[in-house]
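Researcher: First entry.
Model:
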Amino acid sequence: MTDIRAFLKEHGPLLFDGAMGTCFAALPGRADQRCELASLTEPEEIAAIHRSYLEAGCRAIKTNTFTAGLELAQDQGEAPARMIRAACRIAKDCAAPYGAYVFADIGPAPEGARLSRGEVYCREADLFLAQGITCFLLETLPSDDGVAQLARHLKERCPDAYLIVSFAVTFDGVTREGIEGQALFRRAAALPEVDAVGFNCVSGPRHLLDYIRRLDLSVLGDKALSVMPNAGYPTVLGRRTAYQGAPDYFGGRLAQIVRAGASIVGGCCGTTPEHLAQAAQAIAALPPVPVPLEPARTAAPRPAPHANTLSDKLDRGERVIAVELDPPADDDISFFLDGVRALSEAGADAVTIADCPIGRPRADSSLLACKLKRELGVEPLPHLTCRDRNLNATKALLLGLSMEGVHNVLLVTGDPIPSTDRDEVKSVFNFNSRKLARYVSGLNESVLRTPFRIFGALNVNAANFAVQLRLAREKEENGVSGFLTQPVLSAQALDNLRLARETLRGKILGGVYPVVSHKNACFLNNEIAGMRIAPEITALYEGKTREEAEELAIEISARIAGEIAPCTDGLYLMTPFRRVALMTRILERLAH
């Protein structure tokens, strides 16, 4: 059989099959069955789908193994091996009469499983190699975690192996983990062991065509571009998800994708043998003389950025003070606005606004931030949680913030919904704060004229602070350039803050919380995560009146601010119980 590299040079393009999963689900009684297990239980049905694609003109088919890595990730013995052996046998038997290539289909490995993504991919590769499969498609990837590890392992075990790496991006070029597809494309193309790079799934043919036209394909060198779009976008018909993109439309767009530079093409979700038959005809009708690749469309120069006074002050090495004021729980904003005015006049450089703290609904932090910026001219720092928003909602919110001149955000994973509410209100976490930071950082580079200054949280009261430092370094790698810490109210917290200063590159705003009573100290110590108040501080409040306790709070806050000054770039003051007057007194004390 002709080596696939020679085939691409002499005959190209190579046409892959379409979606095994959606074809199998369309069979009577199969909608709720796992497609990959059918290689063991209904092998003839899987073989019939393979043959239908080959009859349509496809010259490469994928093994029915897209989700085999799920069991491998949990180290679940022989089950994935049996699945892979059966799928390889069926695909090879079907492909042989047509002289077609069989590609090992490896889907994305889950994150946070017993085995790392790279370990999963390497184990899968070994199982396929044992079946004589030497062509590999690593597809629908949300990130490049483990890709380099697999590529090296594969070429060490089989130097002639052919590896396609394919990422899944939305129409605007971002994966479900918030990573820019262009960055993934460049990194994968730079790996010497990778033979082809491209995109599949999530997007329809028109959007992937537009997307690859914007790419710098020169980074591929002699590698091939692979593109396998969906048959459009899904809709729900009754209880079934369906794709209604017409086969002739799909075929025409796939031919345009070939003209735009792709030499490996095929279909993903919703694409049937008819879709690929139309694609085969449209590609065959292309002019025999090579058409010059369409030049990448260059983006227009972005306008000059807006000013960011908080970020500019930090970059000049000046100390800053950010004061947190909780958003209202109703629609009366008068107290909040009055409080912000007072804090700003007392010397606060920014006002931070929590995003539904402890999972209880309050006025939206981002909407309030826009109002403060527009009506008061105050620099806001809204908290933005990963709870309750997917990437679409997050991007929409960030674009709105940027339009309103809000260019600083504190990204946190977010508190879960209290257990008493979970029967009616569900927490939704599609990603964590590190992935969110990576996503915002990508927007900074590719979309926004004024980049966001990205802040993260740092818990200096954590029992295992080494873990917190590791997470903080990961945040920095993903674009975080500053940290707001939990309150420093113990010697251990101060030691941890000093260690953070030695370890991290970003600016640090040290947390200061004015404890206002003995009861308040006990509550914080016992019921609020991330708080640790030294016993000697708690004891000072015993028997104090409200006025005496506030005076003590001012003294302790001023003392702590002085102690943490050498290892911070400013302060993060938290307002207790809406006591704005107390905070203005502390700000005035710190100014002298």
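Researcher: Second entry.
Model:
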Amino acid sequence: MNKKRTFILLISSLILLVAAGFVFILYPFPSNEKITYYENETLIVYQNEVMEDERVQSVNQQHYVPFSFIKENIDSNIVYDKSSESVIITMPQDVYQLPTDELKYYMNQKAYDLHFPVTTPNDGEPSIAAKWLEQVYPVYLHQTEKALFVYENGSTRETAELVSGLDEHQTKVREQPKATSPYYINLGPGDKVYIKGEEERYYHIITSEGIAGYLVKEALGDPVTETLTSETVIKKRKNVSEVEKPFHLTWDAIYHPAATPSVVEAKPGVQILSPTWFEMMDAEGSIENFAKKEYVASAHEQGDQVWALFSNGFDADLTKQVLPSFEKRQYMIRQLLDYARIYDLDGINIDFENVYLEDGPYLTQFVRELTPLAHQAGLVVSVDVAFPYGSEQWSRFLEHEKLAEAADYLMVMAYDEHWANSPEAGSVASLPWVRRNLENLVELVPPEKLLLGIPLYTRLWTETTLENGEVDVSSESFSMEETKEWMSERNIAPVYDEMTKQNVVTYEEGNNRYIIWIEDETSLVNRVNLMKEFNLAGIASWSESFAEPSAWQTIQEAMNP
């Protein structure tokens, strides 16, 4: 009997142990292991996501936000200028310079005093004071000792508070959504959390100190959705002189002071003149000036605006010495604004060509910094661009989409399909070539900000057959009148070319074959019609001196039938 009783007790004990094991497996005891989230660091929570690779720097009780975070999430156009150790922020109406560790900043080149530095160094990059950021950007910020919460204006988030009467294990914010997971922190009744999502019995939450984890659902009251609104409003661009669209700008090529006339002849259908008056002249950013007050006064008398052109002289090396420097860019801007005031200009046209690929973003930044100050002075800002996808230094350095955002207008120089030293003869700008490139460009630039550049010149191509049978190709530029004279002297007439949508003339003499793809009434009307088809802002013609008198009337009638 004793053996039997002992056997029964052993079996019963074994059954109890197995049952206890199943209970332990099926109903695990809550973990009391506490782990550290982050030690002695202030976190950034952006749109309810903890930014694990970004940390706030705290200096004298001020939270400073890393430059990299701002550029990635708030303002992709913010830049850091190493030469002046300044952060540069461009807004539609204002340009800010924030020198590092100084009790001042500059807005539109005017100094303002501070009680604490706006920026401070942080491991090789600057950080910007959170209090200053929320005064400039339309973002919602709130700070705690261990976290900085950043939300886009108008964002929503769900909040809830811990209820009372909970067991201790229910108040733990755990690493994973299960009771056996280690926990980061214990919360108390009334503590607020932000709900990211849910997973079975748990809410995925962020605490007010920026700790992300899991909390049992029964620990929280009913969630409430709140909308987060910034009090900061970005001021819109100031209105500048409007021109009825579509309009016609013509460039006036002037290359020395004596070439600037005092009286401007009226041209039918032309609303804007762009004389090539200003050019970068040295490595400090000094600007050479060919302007004349009488020219502007004469243009204004006949109802035309003047958007003076500023060029880099097509000098890539000189441009590299100037554009990357914030101080030199500001120096050029001050000169342009002074000239605009002195000569009563209506706008500035930027024509930078032959620029190294790596310097393209600095051109964009220059336009961003110029435009707000130009608008304050009532000036229109336009930029000359080539079609995308060409060579590095004549096309691909241009950030077309960003330039369109920064400037009022872009003029696309839709010519030089075949340039002066082209290895083969061809049209300066065949209509199918222009159309193809326009289709690509309007994917990047809003049509209402784009002017179609049209050539008023052509090229006389000479194909010479050499003794070895090879063909040598050369060219010289012709104005519209020179083209007519050349054909008249040889008593030859052009033939319409369906491929280029232009009239073409050919002439052979000895070993030479001469070809001209002509700019005349036919090509001008076709170009204007292309502008209208794409709903562009207008046309920009290069250049005034190449046109025959009847060309202006032809363009006007085509634009306003």
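Model: Note on the second entry: The chain has 13 helices and 34 strands.
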